[in-house]
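re: the backbone from monday

yeah here it is again, tokenized this time
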């Protein structure tokens, strides 16, 4: 997304810019192990609340880097380390812990998709307009359900 702008602003090649993504992926792989240890020790909620603003500030600080390619690569190497609490492991731990105590709701949410899929397959082709409206409505209801589950978790703790 930013490759053409970085290329135009700094004169770097696409390969040089793409190395930033590669470095980030390698660092995420390494840092994920550290994330697991930190999540077990300090808890997911604490890690998430600490790392979201830190990651945002670190990402914003990337705009202050000079035109040096090594600074760009170093910044992309440090982002996963600073944002260790926003990696998927933290969110999975929160979700798994919440559903562990609410197994019935977990099964209901998991099977919710089956009902949506069956409903959309059974619709006739001539009802395309109705189907689009129904999909929008289902998407809205699903997003609302997810928000409600997340709010409930945040209110009632780990």
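seq for it, each position gets an aa:
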């Amino acid at each position: 997304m930013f490759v053409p702008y970085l290329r135009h602003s700094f004169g770097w090649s696409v390969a040089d810019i793409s190395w930033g993504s590669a470095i980030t992926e390698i660092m995420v792989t390494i840092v994920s192990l550290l994330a697991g240890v930190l999540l077990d020790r300090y808890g997911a909620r604490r890690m998430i609340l600490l790392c979201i603003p830190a990651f945002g500030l670190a990402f914003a600080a990337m705009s202050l880097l000079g035109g040096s390619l090594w600074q760009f690569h170093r910044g992309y190497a440090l982002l996963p380390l600073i944002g260790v609490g926003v990696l998927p492991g933290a969110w999975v731990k929160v979700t798994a812990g919440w559903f562990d105590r609410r197994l019935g709701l977990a099964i209901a949410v998991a099977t919710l998709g089956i009902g949506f899929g069956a409903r959309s397959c059974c619709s006739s082709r001539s009802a395309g307009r109705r189907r689009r409206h129904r999909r929008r409505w289902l998407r809205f209801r699903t997003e609302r359900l997810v928000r409600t589950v997340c709010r409930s978790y945040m209110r009632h703790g780990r």
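The chain has two domains: 3-90, 102-156. The first helix runs from residue 3 to 10.
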